[in-house]
């Protein structure tokens, strides 16, 4: 007779400390086998095999393995589809339960449903636990039980509901780990990827940045942002730790964490937003979708120094300052009248901190078709934004150093583009009224 065990499936929570799902597994009463799965279905969608995000995950797993070994266990890492992994584990172990932290993206929900059914057929329970958010899909609702679709009232209710228990660290004893002999992780090459120049560092909360985050966050040259997007995306830091720190240090940064959860619950309640406008009437917009202009935008060759600097920073580093993200997204959708889905997909391939819900929500916000109280005629003027947030051109000179020698007519004049966008948007909304 084999002894019963529990399995903990690491996914978007690549840390041992303050991990709610792992704590639940350790409290199950069974020795816990930690696993991670590189899913070929997901990896297969990444055409560039020099993908820093995969390398980041790989390095985070190495750090996680160090922590598990120090606690008396280890991790088993697989490169296979989840259903086949659990079928193989079922043959090797007598599994009582599989635990995982809950995921809210449509594809993840579908995957977990399939895994749950497969495990149930084998008499194994599948337990998912809240970990990557403070409040889930139905935790923050209006009085009538419907979801909030505007950030400000959602944020107000979020703060009203917040209690100490919601952001308390998940303390756990690791003496229930299944004793394992150390096993080397698969190499990046084994899963079809290449080593990149990214260097994983255990994330930390820096008071010198967060204390005056509100005053400095809009100025890209200051580089005064936390750079914790990728850590939150892959769970190498706990959102509870971030909220505890924000409550102590800076309300503006707390609002940014709430924006993250707002977009997550929008995606959970309205999964259609993955590929359709939140406001359906905006599906009538006659996008120009000029491929040549899109390519110039992607390459950072629009003739607008701030837009081009932002795109070059993204292409070179996988990061773009948030203020500049807004300007570049507004430029694509309003100045060039290119479908927001094109820009959203491009950012998805480049951003190290790519998060479906936030990327989608922010692109729809920029295009004016998302869950935003502001009217569609908010159109950023790239030149005015430069004067306001990069007046000395320090950011522009860093990422677009040849902008003066290449100075030429921009691909479109701001006033012309603004008038054109307003006309096209207005026509779309009038058409919707008529239909």
From TrEMBL:
Start and end residues of each Photolyase/cryptochrome alpha/beta domain: 4-134
Alphabetical list of PROSITE patterns matching this protein: DNA_PHOTOLYASES_1_1, DNA_PHOTOLYASES_1_2, PHR_CRY_ALPHA_BETA
The entry's keywords: Chromophore, FAD, Flavoprotein
Coiled coil: none
InterPro entries: Crypto/Photolyase_FAD-like_sf, Crypto/Photolyase_N_sf, Cryptochr/Photolyase_FAD-bd, Cryptochrome/DNA_photolyase_1, DNA_photolyase_1_CS_C, DNA_photolyase_N, Rossmann-like_a/b/a_fold
Cofactor: FAD; (6R)-5,10-methylene-5,6,7,8-tetrahydrofolate
Family: Belongs to the DNA photolyase family.
Protein name: Deoxyribodipyrimidine photo-lyase
Encoding gene, per UniProt annotation: phrB1
């Amino acid at each position: 007779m084999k002894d019963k065990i529990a399995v903990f499936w690491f996914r978007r929570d690549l840390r041992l400390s303050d991990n709610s799902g792992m704590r639940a597994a350790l409290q199950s009463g069974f020795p816990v086998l930690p696993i991670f799965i590189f899913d070929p279905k997901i990896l297969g969608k990444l055409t560039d095999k020099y993908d820093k995000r995969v390398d980041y995950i790989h390095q985070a797993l190495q750090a996680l393995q160090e922590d598990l070994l120090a606690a008396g266990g280890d991790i088993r890492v697989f490169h296979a589809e989840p259903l086949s992994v659990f079928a193989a584990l079922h043959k090797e172990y007598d599994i009582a339960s599989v635990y995982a932290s809950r995921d809210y993206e449509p594809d993840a929900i579908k995957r977990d449903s399939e895994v749950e059914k497969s495990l149930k057929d084998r008499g194994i329970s599948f337990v998912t636990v809240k970990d990557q958010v403070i409040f889930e899909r139905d935790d923050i609702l209006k009085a009538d039980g419907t979801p909030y679709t505007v950030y400000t009232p959602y944020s107000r209710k979020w703060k009203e509901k917040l209690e100490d228990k919601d952001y308390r660290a998940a303390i756990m004893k690791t003496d229930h780990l299944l004793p394992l002999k150390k096993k080397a992780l698969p190499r990046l090459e084994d899963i079809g990827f290449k080593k990149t120049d990214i260097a994983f560092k255990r994330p930390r909360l820096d008071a010198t940045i967060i204390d005056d985050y509100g005053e400095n966050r809009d100025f890209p040259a200051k580089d005064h942002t936390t750079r914790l997007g990728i850590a939150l995306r892959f769970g190498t830091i706990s959102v509870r730790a971030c909220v505890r720190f924000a409550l102590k240090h800076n309300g503006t940064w707390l609002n940014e964490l709430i924006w993250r959860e707002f977009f997550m619950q929008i995606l959970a309640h309205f999964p259609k937003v993955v590929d359709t406008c939140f406001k359906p009437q905006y599906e009538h917009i006659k996008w120009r979708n000029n491929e040549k202009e899109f390519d110039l935008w992607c390459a950072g060759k629009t003739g607008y120094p701030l837009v081009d600097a932002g795109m070059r920073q993204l292409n070179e580093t996988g990061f773009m300052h948030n203020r500049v993200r807004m300007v570049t997204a507004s430029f694509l959708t309003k100045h060039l009248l290119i479908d927001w889905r094109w820009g959203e997909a491009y950012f998805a391939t480049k951003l190290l901190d790519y998060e479906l819900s936030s990327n989608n929500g922010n692109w729809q916000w920029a295009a004016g078709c998302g869950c935003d109280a502001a009217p569609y005629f908010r159109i950023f003027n790239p030149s005015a934004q430069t004067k306001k947030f990069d007046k000395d051109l320090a950011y522009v000179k860093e990422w677009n150093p040849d902008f003066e020698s290449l100075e030429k007519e921009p691909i479109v004049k701001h006033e012309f583009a603004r008038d054109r966008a307003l006309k096209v948007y207005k026509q779309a909304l009038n058409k919707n009224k008529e239909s």
